[in-house]
Each structure stands twice: as C-alpha cells, then as structure tokens.
Amino acid sequence: MARNLDLTALRSFVAVADAGGVTRAAGFLNLTQSAVSMQLKRLEDGLGIALLDRSARTIALNPMGEQLLSYARRMLALNDEIYGRMTSTDYEGEITVGVPSDIIYPAIPLVLQRFAQAYPRLRIKLISSNTNLLKAQHARGEVDIILTTEPEGTPGHQTVTRRKMIWIGAPNGQAGRARPLRLAFSSVCLFRTTAQRSLDAAGMPWEMAIEGDGQTAIEATVSADLAVHASLEGTAPSHLSQIDASAGLPPLGEMEINLYRGDAGAGPALDDLVAMITSAYRMGQLPQVVSA
C-alpha cells in the first residue's frame, strides 16, 4: 500500500534546517514551537528513522536528515509550482524591497524564499543601499518596503528591533589601539557621525582612512587592519570581528532597525511580507559576531 509523506511536516523540517533551530523556524512559519516539534516527530515516526541529532545544544541534521533534505526541497518546490500555476492569478506584479547591505544576511534570503512559496506569481525586486538613499526612494514612492538603521525613526516608521552598535576590525588586529584612531566609513553612512561624536565626547583623536561610498573598499581597508568600522551587533561580515573592550574605544549606543512601507500595492500580500520581515528580525535571524 502506498504511503504519503506529510508536506506540512516536510515544510517544517526544511524550515528547521534553514533557520538552524525549532524556535526560529516556528517564527518563520507562524507556528508555535511545540507545533513544529510535533510535526518533526510525526515525520520521523512515519519514516521510522531519526532525522535530527539532538545530542548537542543546537539541533543539527544527521546523515539521514541531510539525505531527506534534498528530496524535501524538490518535493516542496514542485508542490509550490503546481499550486502557483493551477490556482487563481491573484497577487500578480512586483514588490520592491530596500534593505541596507549590512543587515541583509541571513534574514532577508529566508524571508524572500518563504514569500515566493506563498505568492509564486509575485516578483520581488531587492535594492541594497544605505539608509539615507532608501528613505529618499521611499519618499518618492519608488519602493514598497524599506528597512533602515537609524538612531530613531521618522514619521511612518515601525521599529522592528533595537541593536547595540559595536566597533569592528580585522581579527586579532591592532587598528583599534592606534591613536589617532583611523576610521573607514562611507560618506553617507549614519554610523560615521555616531562614531565621530562618540570619539569626540571621549576626547579620543581620530582621522578618516578612506573617502567615498564603496562598501568593498571599506571592508578591504578594515580587513587589512588599516582602520576600524562600526556595525550593529550580530551583523558584521564573517571576516571581521568585534574589537575587544581592552582597546578602550567609547561605547556607541544603540540603533533601531525600522521598517517603512508605502501606500501603493497595499493588501494581504504586502501585509504578509511585512509580518515575515518583522518576525525574522525579532526572532534573531542575524549572525553572531565573534570577539577578537
């Protein structure tokens, strides 16, 4: 007798694998943690095998789970393709989303993947820029949703989360101990002003090591241990590290991650995308910084 796999349980299984844990997956799926756990258990019981290694502090796939993941992705992709083609043509068009480059990963790819599954006929156009430019585009009605990083929002914003600002530099680097402190920031970066004011208040001399708006040049300069930069806690590139407190750099305070949405294209699809983005950032879908 043929036996059928539970696609809902498979979707929870893939979400856990992608999000790195049951709690985060539950946030993406808008389910409780216990509901996701029950679906995983039902899937394991139905197959008669264990899929997860629960011996460590974090849940990881065992070899059988890794094998199932490949099949599960293909099954869900085919299911979503069929559903998208055979159902009504509601929610067609394009949604433009703007996000600062330093907070895209890993939350935004996971959100966009889930949104595409729910609304296969809607296209997403992703813009990566700095907060000031994104807010200008939003004011002109050129984007449907933007995220910003700023000390406080302006009218029309929704605060998604608040995060501590940290100094970052090359792993095991010495640039954070140099005086004057050499800084690498874009000329339009809001973090630049915050860093300069904090240093001035602390009576610590500084100088700019780079001018311009190229993020690649900034990261290269910092990676070479020629200057320091600042980022929100949990958002630094993996090749950079938080500067140790022993360097004596002044605190930078906190920044908000805010969301703004336009009036055009309002509806359930846009509401769902806003909810997915908000849930992703509030559930902590940001990488952790390793202290140098």
Brief characterization of the structure:
With 292 residues, this protein is an alpha/beta fold. It has helices at residues 7-19, 22-29, 33-47, 63-86, 107-118, 131-139, 190-201, 215-223, 268-282; strands at 52-53, 60-61, 93-100, 122-129, 145-150, 158-169, 181-183, 206-208, 229-232, 241-242, 254-261.
Keywords:
single chain, 292 residues, alpha/beta, Arc Repressor Mutant, subunit A, D-Maltodextrin-Binding Protein, domain 2, 2 domains, 7-stranded mixed beta sheet, two-stranded antiparallel ribbon, 9 helices, 40% helix
Structural write-up:
The strands form three sheets. Strands 3, 4, 5, 6, 9, 10 and 11 form a seven-stranded mixed beta sheet that branches. Helix 1 packs across helix 3 (33-47), helix 1 (7-19) crosses helix 4 (63-86) and helix 5 runs antiparallel to helix 9 (268-282). With 292 residues, this protein is an alpha/beta fold. Helix 7 (190-201) links the parallel strand 7 (181-183) and strand 8. The chain folds into two domains: 7-86, Winged helix-like DNA-binding domain superfamily/Winged helix DNA-binding domain (Arc Repressor Mutant, subunit A, Orthogonal Bundle); 94-292, 3-Layer(aba) Sandwich (D-Maltodextrin-Binding Protein, domain 2). The protein is built from nine helices and eleven strands. It starts with 6 loop residues before the first helix and ends in a 10-residue tail after the last helix. The protein is 40% helix and 20% strand.
